[in-house]
Write a structure and sequence with these properties.
alpha+beta; five-stranded mixed β-barrel; five-stranded mixed beta sheet; 15% strand
Length: 621
């Protein structure tokens, strides 16, 4: 208890410790921020030596904690004892997470076997190859595994069941099975609202929700926890006479709920804030909201130093921090005005995350947030809880779901206010938040500096027009399955795509090109029609303004040298109609500035002999 009382010693200073932890994290990502960290430590030394001392201790402890959670791979030459903690079945294999010596690993088994949570096996393994292409700006499996404490991925070669045991995750399975059986129509939405898992919602609806910028309303967070706390406090008030008894019961429920949602970052953050608020009240620590947010941030990083890699963690704390900072601007008597102000804050706080996911933002998101905030708060969310407890309301809740889905799919078609751009450098994101926080503070002080507005305006214009400031022409061989080459001229003069690789569900090639500030493709060239060269073509044509398309059917129209920006290319006339599609590959010389590239598709020996006999190509870089 004395430890809790000691928390008040650093009242109003926890934000400095949180910033210190944040700078250490940024330093791990980008070396430049180590300089910023040194400058910040110097600032603390000048302004508050006592805060600096405590901060240095926190730095040391955090560094030690990071070292303790380093990845511990398994030795494939040994057999291992694994306990199944979660699983998911696919058509061709079963993927399950298991504990080996109290460490988590992901396993894949292709045999015909029915697994259950809690079962213990003796297994022989081999390391699972990462088949995801290493494409920048797309899904990073290594970071994903770090965020979820997965120490490695392995293929199970042989297994022998040892015994059945009880595991706490079996309860999650029981809750999930109860919802699936008792509320089949609204199952996906109730699961999303209660268990924070949205994989049962139709993919097209999820895309529409993301495009509208309202996905945060469906992440179990402060809104959901707040409503649960209000409902529980009301119910417990009738059952328990003393307030402290209700608060103890509430704390136990929140701990249980964190487990039930697999410790979703937004749930953990919101639940721990409630607990710290209760501790603050009972122990009279006199901590303010910013202190509590900072304390929760620090505690969670010490529990799991790589928690910050989870998007939910980043977004949850940023949104909370901005809302706390903007509290004076949200205190309207009119609920509509308050909701609109909150929507504006949420829009700007989440903007880098939205453009990271969608490479665009819809300006109408501010209005959508207001509309759907009330719809979720007063209808979808409370009815999810009611339907969970009383399945008889399944049909009625499904009507609400249908209305919601119809509306978001309809507004998805309104794209005239959608702005395509990216903010994919950490330094840009940091500058963006500095400008936003500075502007927010000045608005609260009712004194907005003209110079700040000018700097912010220049920054916005630069972000929107980044493609025009690409100084060097470049050639990118994208790591897709198959072939895909992106050729980009300086100052957005010409963009060419040669082949697209196979079709993929995560649109890696498209995401990569958008993050290279490409909005227009002057030429799309398909060397030949095999899936690993044209599989993603349809998505490319939908996602970009394609000016010219070239393949075997119309290549004869391009017999002369074609110039585009500082690029020029030429197709070598060769015979057509080969039975082997690889030997129908287009062969072209491409000059980018002074560099000469020869693209040959997948031509094989007979085509190569024909080409060598007809042409003497030299000076290929």
């Amino acid at each position: 208890m004395n430890v809790l009382k000691n928390l008040s010693l650093f009242r109003n200073e926890y934000i400095y410790f949180a910033i210190l932890c944040l700078l250490m994290i940024l330093s791990l990502e980008k070396g430049f921020f180590f300089i910023v960290l040194i400058v910040y430590l110097y600032y603390l030394w000048k302004t508050s030596p006592q805060t600096l001392k405590v901060g240095l201790v926190i730095c040391l402890l955090f560094a030690l904690r990071v070292e303790l959670v380093q990845r511990k791979p398994l030795d494939p030459s040994n057999v291992h004892i694994v306990k199944v903690t979660s699983l998911k079945e696919y058509d061709q294999f079963t993927s399950f997470r298991g504990k080996v010596n109290h460490k988590s690993y992901q396993f894949q088994y292709s045999g015909n076997h029915q697994f259950s949570i809690g079962e213990v096996y003796e297994i022989s393994i081999e390391e699972l190859e990462d088949n995801n292409g290493d494409i920048p700006y797309t899904f990073d499996l290594k970071k994903y595994d770090k965020a979820l404490r997965i120490n490695g991925r392995y293929k199970v070669l042989e297994l022998t069941k040892i015994k059945n045991t009880v595991h706490i995750n079996q309860l999650i399975t029981l809750v999930d099975q109860y919802m699936k059986n008792s509320i089949p129509q609204s199952y996906g939405y109730v699961k999303t609202m209660i268990l924070a898992e949205n994989e049962e919602i139709d993919e097209s609806v999820l895309e529409a929700i993301n495009d509208a910028g309202i996905s945060h309303l469906f992440a179990v967070s402060g809104l959901h926890i707040g409503l649960l706390v209000v409902m529980l406090r009301k119910g417990l008030g009738y059952l328990l006479k003393k307030d402290y008894q209700s608060d103890i019961a509430l704390t136990i429920f929140l701990l249980f709920y964190m487990f039930l949602t697999s410790f979703s970052p937004s749930v953990v953050r919101a639940s721990m804030m409630v607990m710290f608020i209760l501790i603050n009240r009972y122990k009279k620590l006199q901590l303010d909201t910013l202190d509590i947010v900072s304390l929760v941030f620090i505690v969670l990083l010490f529990v799991h130093p790589y928690y910050y890699l989870q998007l939910g963690f980043q977004l949850s704390f940023l949104m909370t921090f901005f809302i706390v900072l903007a509290r004076p601007l949200l205190s309207y008597d009119d609920k509509i005005k308050s909701a609109f102000a909150l929507s504006m804050i949420a829009f700007f706080a989440s903007l880098p995350f939205v453009v990271s996911l969608n490479q665009s933002v819809n300006v109408l998101t501010v209005f959508y947030n207001v509309i759907y905030l009330f719809f979720v708060m007063f209808l979808l969310l409370p009815f999810a809880y009611i339907t969970f407890v009383f399945p008889i309301f399944d049909d009625l809740y499904y009507v609400l779901i249908t209305l919601f889905e119809y509306s978001v799919l309809w507004i998805e078609k309104i794209d005239i206010f959608k702005i395509d751009f990216v903010m994919n450098k950490l330094s840009y994101i940091v500058v963006y938040y500095i400008l936003c926080i500075g502007l927010l503070i000045q608005i609260e002080e009712k004194h907005v500096r003209r110079s700040w507005v000018y700097v912010s305006s220049v920054f916005v214009l630069f972000i929107l027009l980044q493609g025009k400031f690409v100084v060097y022409s470049s050639v990118h061989f994208v790591d897709v399955y198959g072939d895909a080459t992106v050729i980009q001229s300086s100052f957005d003069r010409c963009n060419i795509l040669i082949d697209t690789g196979v079709s993929d569900s995560y649109d890696g090639l498209i995401t990569y090109m958008k993050n290279k500030h490409i909005k227009r493709l002057d030429y799309v060239i398909i060397s030949h029609h095999h899936d690993d060269h044209h599989g993603e073509l349809e998505d490319v044509l939908k996602s970009f303004n394609v000016i010219n398309y070239i393949d075997q059917s119309n290549v004869d129209k391009y017999q002369d040298v074609t110039r585009c920006g500082d690029q020029q290319f030429f197709f070598y006339p060769l015979t057509k109609g080969h039975h082997n599609e690889n030997d129908n590959s287009l062969v072209m010389s491409m000059y980018v500035g002074r560099d000469h590239y020869l693209f040959t598709g997948d031509m094989e020996t007979s085509r190569e002999k024909e080409f060598i006999a007809l042409y003497d190509v030299k000076d290929v870089d």
